[in-house]
Amino acid sequence: MPDVPEIDIAALETHMAAGALVIDVREDDEYLDGHLGGSVHIPLGSVPDRFDEIPTDQPVCVICAAGGRSARAVGFLRAKGV
Fold it and tell me: Are the C-beta atoms of 26 and 68 separated by less than 8 Å?
């Protein structure tokens, strides 16, 4: 997906320390198997319906298992101005 930035773990930690919200877009069972502490769980299919829960006044990072779902979520959020 074009124009979707990727960051490594060190950069994610830096963003989190600076106040970024981390959204985990994996499915429920994946999230329950293990997730990043402090992340907010919004499965990819629920992102449009739960858009009002995502702040527009702070940085947002999106994670998943391999990058495909997070890229789709980022594309959606960027189109909405996040």
Answer: no
Residue with tokens 């629920």: 46
Cα–Cα distance, 30 to 76 (Å, whole number): 22
DSSP calls for 16-79: HHTT-EEEE-S-HHHHHH---TT-EE--GGGTTTTGGGS-SSS-EEEE-SSSHHHHHHHHHHHH
- The mean pLDDT values, 10 residues at a time, for the chain of 82 residues are 80 94 97 94 97 93 94 93 89
Whether pTM > 0.85 for this model: the answer is yes
Q: What does the alpha-carbon distance between residue 68 and residue 1 come to, in Å, rounded to a whole number?
A: 9
